[in-house]
């Protein structure tokens, strides 16, 4: 935050807690320090500094109060943060005793609080109030596991929305992203852990990969032994489809290519063979509906010594 935090400016009259100007204050790059008089460019910068300070000191800071400008309601003039253990637990009991349940709370009525004010003329956010005392122990090691610190940052969620809504992606990329976005919409909320989201996406990709492997295996083994038709006869079409389609639609298209050259053979006996009515000078491949018989079946009743030439 070294580049964003500027030197202390003159006070804002009654908005300052002590009414006097203070010395210049800077926020150290390695260790975030909060002092009355610190200046910030905007509320986003305030949020980042408060979160960093709380994380370094082993607690979580939550927004407590927000005061809007009396004239322009879109401008936030004051904002305060308090500790996540502020206040006391107020149980909501119902009349039916069977619906009561025992529960515990981590509220300790902690008094830690920090307040900020956006000046009307200087257009800088100033730290005006700080009570840096806690009524509980703060653990820097375990605060990383707090739900707030495990959620996806809003910046990441904004980028995901931007690239999926406004991105110019190919058909394959778009379908893959839509699949992943469906998983994200289903699982992400304010309490979702990053690890849980990663596992859900991995499972979705594994299902897609497994389906693709099965479909490719089926398509590469046609019953007449024509392996990889899409890489030979339909090579040009397949190259275009491969560039435009996701794995699952691509497998379906390749299966249709294979089926385009497949036929189902039916074995018949010699008694079922009849004279063909079509022109025998035609190409034999066009006579797909003519009954066929194996040569071995024709030689069943012929002695081997009677065969002169094949």
Automatic annotation (TrEMBL):
Alphabetical list of PANTHER family matching this protein: OS01G0519700 PROTEIN
Annotated spans, Disordered: 1-23
Organism lineage: Eukaryota, Fungi, Fungi incertae sedis, Mucoromycota, Glomeromycotina
Coiled coil (residue ranges): none
Top-level taxon in the UniProt lineage: Eukaryota
Pfam families for the chain: FAR1
Natural source organism: Racocetra fulgida
UniProt cross-references to InterPro entries, sorted A to Z: FAR1_DNA_bnd_dom (IPR004330)
Protein name: 13467_t:CDS:1
Domain FAR1: 52-138
């Amino acid at each position: 935050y070294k580049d964003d935090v500027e030197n202390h400016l003159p006070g804002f009259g009654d908005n300052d807690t002590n009414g006097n100007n203070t010395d210049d204050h800077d926020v150290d790059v390695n260790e975030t320090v909060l002092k009355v008089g610190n200046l910030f460019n905007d509320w986003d910068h305030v949020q980042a500094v408060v979160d960093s300070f709380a994380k370094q000191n082993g607690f979580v800071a939550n927004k407590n109060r927000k005061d809007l400008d009396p004239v322009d309601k879109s401008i936030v003039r004051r904002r305060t943060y308090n500790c996540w253990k502020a206040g006391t637990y107020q149980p909501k009991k119902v009349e039916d005793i069977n619906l009561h349940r025992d529960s515990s709370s981590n509220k300790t009525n902690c008094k830690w609080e920090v307040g900020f004010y956006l000046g009307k003329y200087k257009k800088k956010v100033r730290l005006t109030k700080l009570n840096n005392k806690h009524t509980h122990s703060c653990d820097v090691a375990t605060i990383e596991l707090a739900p707030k610190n495990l959620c996806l940052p809003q910046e990441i969620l904004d980028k995901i929305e931007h690239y999926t809504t406004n991105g110019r992606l190919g058909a394959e990329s778009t379908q893959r992203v839509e699949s992943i976005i469906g998983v994200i919409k289903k699982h992400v909320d304010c309490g979702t852990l990053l690890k849980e989201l990663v596992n859900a996406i991995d499972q979705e990709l594994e299902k897609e990969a497994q389906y693709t492997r099965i479909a490719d295996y089926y398509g590469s083994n046609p019953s007449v032994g024509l392996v990889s038709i899409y890489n030979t006869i339909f090579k040009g079409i397949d190259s275009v489809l491969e560039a435009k389609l996701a794995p699952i639609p691509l497998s379906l298209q390749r299966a249709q290519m294979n089926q385009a050259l497949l036929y189902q053979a039916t074995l018949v006996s010699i008694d079922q063979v009849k004279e063909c009515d079509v022109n025998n000078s035609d190409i034999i491949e066009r006579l797909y509906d003519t009954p066929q018989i194996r040569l071995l079946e024709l030689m069943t009743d012929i002695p081997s010594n009677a065969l002169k030439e094949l």
